[in-house]
Amino acid sequence: MSAPDLIDLMQHHGVKPTANRILIARHLSEAGRPMSQTELEEAIGSIDKSGISRTLALFREQHLVHTLEDSGSGIRYELCLSHEEGSDSDVHVHFYCERCRRTFCLEEIPIPSVPLPAGYLQESVNYMVKGLCPQCAKTDS
Questions:
Q1: Is residue 86 predicted with pLDDT exceeding 50?
Q2: If DSSP codes are grouped into helix, strand and coil, which group holds residue 56?
Q3: Most C-beta atoms within 10 A of its C-beta, which of 33, 37, 85, 121?
Q4: Are the CB atoms for 20 and 55 separated by under 8 Å?
Q5: Cβ–Cβ < 8 Å for 110, 118
Q6: Quick one: DSSP state of residue 35?
Q7: Per-residue pLDDT tens for 9-50?
Q8: For 45-126, where are the alpha helices, taking DSSP H only?
Q9: Facing residues of 96 across strands?
Q10: Using CA atoms, how far apart are residues 32 and 79, in angstroms rounded to an integer?
């Protein structure tokens, strides 16, 4: 995403676009996969751990990022590209490789609808498939 697109997305989510926030959002956008806070710290280098942590907390509060647990390195973050109020149009399946410990977005596969019993109210959904990615599976053959 271009800087103007990121700024527009941030403003839509009620986040003031500062230089550090734009930098963090750009790294999330360009990663092509969900990233852990540690991966962001290593990739950016110019923002300290507490600054990245505060920014991710703000992004999460304002629904600018999706969070998911992959049982590998804990919580991962990916930029939420939805512009819809009250709903999220960019939810998709994720795949966690148990060998290389990377998490991949399978954006072409939507999360299936799950009918909930009366009284339950869904606020979010996380659909994670685990196994071997194509690169790791190739080394087994």
A1: no
A2: helix
A3: 37
A4: yes
A5: no
A6: E
A7: 999 889 999 999 999 999 999 988 888 899 899 999 899 999
A8: 49-61
A9: 103, 130
A10: 10
Q: Please name which of 74, 76, 18 lies closest in space to residue 51, comparing C-alpha atoms.
A: 18
Three-state secondary structure call for residue 72: coil
SS (H, E, C) 48-117: CHHHHHHHHHHHHHCCCEEEEECCCCCEEEEECCCCCCCCCCCCCEEEEECCCCCEEEECCCCCCCCCCC
Helix (H) / strand (E) element for 41: namely: helix 37-44
pLDDT of 83 strictly over 70: no
| pTM of the shown model | 0.74
Which DSSP letter does residue 133 get? Answer: -
User: Which domains are seen in the chain, by residue range?
Assistant: 3-138 (1.10.10.10)
For tokens 């999330």, name the residue: 28
Q: Residue 106 has what pLDDT? A: 86
Q: How far apart are CA 25 and CA 84, in angstroms?
A: 19
Mean pLDDT of the chain: 85
pLDDT at 85: 46
